[in-house]
Hints:
mainly beta
Amino acid sequence: MSYIGTAPTDGQYSILDDISSGFNGSTTTFNLSSGGTEVVPQSDANALISISGVVQYTSAYAISGSTITFSSAPLSTDSFSGRVLGNSKDIGTPTDGTVSSSSLASTFFMTNGQTFNNVSIASGKNGLAVGTITISGTLTIPSGSSFVII
């Protein structure tokens, strides 16, 4: 299946392997894995990192691929806990002219320069037209409804 914009990615939540055995007060870069398998979070924000029980702001580390780099080296007495929270599903912004009417909600209607015959707005519903339109016959707008032409 093809996508418009960025192809969505998804992933399960993963518990990261403990990397605290490498903490020594001077090393800042570590490899991320879960169950021994390399883990590549979609972004820094997709990871929940704790050092000695304190959740770290994303400004305290950077993730590139499967490597995490801390802004300050964790001490040898520090513990580590980490989770990757799955990936977001961002489809981006569709390119102009790529969304058809069948992709829109049934209550969405848009057309250009059309002639409409006997238009009736359902009770409690609203209608909107932009530009020049022609209505041949009647336009029925019940109480509690509106039809706006801009």
